[in-house]
Amino acid sequence: MSNTIPAATIRRAVVSDASSILEIYNHEVQFETSTFDLVPRTLTAQQDWISARSGAFSAIVAVDTHDTVLGFGALSEYRDRAAYKTSVENSVYVSRNHARSGIGKLILTNLLHQAADSGFHAVMARIEASSQASRGLHASCGFTLVGIEREIGRKFGRWLDVAIMQCLLHEQPGI
Fold it and tell me: What is the pTM of this model?
């Protein structure tokens, strides 16, 4: 784990980033509870995921000065019913080699600006409840805890709770 913030910039993800994103994501699928996916993605599925995203829902990557992907994030539709169209859900994943280095905050801050620029009102986060790092990251970016879904998922032989956090964009200074 790195304690220093690497020089990083944010750009839109492109299909050639798929293998780097896949490496970060599949680690989380196989060894962590930050995603409730149970089956690792294939390279083709990851390429398709990037290709299918556009506009407000474009995936972004944090890259170092050598264009190495350090982490990625995206906004997604929160729910498919019409009244939810002003709300989105965020996803942020950082390479375990760069955890707690500021990369997650850089990605999440950019996603909040992307959401505001696209006219959304609320950004939601669904976080495995015991993940203090992810909950702390979201709190540092203006999210508040609005609920806990108890024993809503099962992974690695355990029942998992999900913390629901929300950021109302109009309440955030500078966004």
Answer: 0.94
Has residue 4 been placed in a domain? no
CB 129 within 8 A of CB 151: no
- Tell which residue, 167, 73, 165, has the closest CA to residue 121: 167
How many structural domains are present in the chain?
1
Each residue's pLDDT tens digit, 11-54 = 999 999 999 999 999 999 999 999 999 999 999 999 999 999 99
Positive or negative CA dihedral for 95, 63, 74, 136? positive
The residue segments making up the domain with residue 13 are 9-171
Task: With respect to residue 1, please indicate whether it lies within any of the assigned structural domains.
Answer: no
Task: Taking residues 93-118, report their average pLDDT.
Answer: 94
Please return the burial class of 173, using the count of CB atoms within 10 Å of its CB with bins 0-12, 13-18 and 19+. exposed
Query: Rounded CA gap, 64 and 62, in Å?
Result: 7
**pLDDT beyond 50 at 2:** no
Tell me the CATH number at 163. Answer: 3.40.630.30
Which residue shows structure tokens 């709770």?
A: 161
